[in-house]
Amino acid sequence: MKEILHKISEFENLSKEEIKTAIRDMIEGRATDSQIGAFIMGMKMKGESIEEIEGAAQVFRELATKVDVPDTQQLIDTCGTGGDRQGTFNVSTVTAFVLAGAGLRVAKHGNRSVSSKSGSADLLEHLGAKIDLSPQQVAIMIQELGIGFMFAPIYHPAMKRVLGPRREVGVRSIFNLVGPLSNPAGAKRQIMGVFSEKLVDRMAHALKGLGSISAVVVHGNDGLDEVSISSSTKIAELKNGQVVLYEFMPEDMDFKRYPLSSVCVSGVEESAQMALSVLKGEESPAYYMVLLNSMFGVIASGITDDKKTALQMAEESIHSGKAYQKLRRFIELSQKL
């Protein structure tokens, strides 16, 4: 660990084997809290390479508690890194239900709030869903309903060892990146928001290296880890083994821009109100923002690469009532299992 820390302190990237060794030393108790803290800070200052992100994610994928569902190639996740500290409502969680309403199979991975006002687990629990389901129960949800939720702490026990040092250091780190890359159901498709523009390209290449079929990685230029309704968004699209980078603007789909404050909330209650309003088809800045994110989710699913068609699918999911119905049935089934 000392050798690895020395290398990081010299701003040298670690090899894939070195990062795997470091992660295993930390989660298996061979590294001290001080060394974990130094690793977090050093990696943050150096910046994580694609190889480092990939190697770390491989360890957590291997150690994750698996959810066994057939045909992972058609499974999609909407989990992002979080950590944008903007206080928006739960865009990616609402997007997951819009995608499920459009007929996609969704394996939603998520956690409680760390830096936001409301995490996906907080929102679903507030709405009445049971979130601490076993792998077998989540598999039933995905099979019967087309959407299941995997509460991260249950599926990544290996993360426990680094929780204390992460909280004490209090900066976003490589551990924020490996969570969304470690879907316990093995989803091969993903729309992923990231908290930094620098990560857009890197995370898309990491997903490619980890075997994703298609993915859309996004960062709003107003700082959001979502496709933004208030500014342009940097997009990295993984398709046919290639990563393509471009900028997207709401105007590209004839949408107006709205101030960031119009999609921000004070807590889980307000987030829940906004989420339900969107799923019921009430037009608002939040509604338009979910449509844009769902559009890219449909594209990530591989059904179509035409934005207009993808947007129509998202609109139909909401206005037919299917997206809202998925949420109602999700809550009911989670309580029964």
Please provide a written account of the structure:
By secondary structure, this protein is of the alpha/beta class. The protein has two domains: about 1-65, Transferase, Pyrimidine Nucleoside Phosphorylase, Chain C (Transferase, Pyrimidine Nucleoside Phosphorylase, Chain A, domain 3), CATH 1.20.970; about 70-335, Pyrimidine Nucleoside Phosphorylase, Chain A, domain 2 (3-Layer(aba) Sandwich). The chain is about 50% helix and about 10% strand. It contains 15 helices and seven strands. It has helices at about 1-10, 15-25, 35-45, 50-65, 90-100, 120-125, 135-145, 150-155, 160-170, 175-180, 200-210, 270-280, 285-300, 305-320, 320-335, and strands at about 75, 105-110, 145-150, 190-195, 215-220, 235-240, 240-250. The chain has a seven-stranded mixed sheet, with helices on both faces. Helix 2 crosses helix 4. It is globular and about 60 Å long. The N and C termini lie far apart (about 45 Å). The model has no long low-confidence stretch (mean pLDDT about 95).
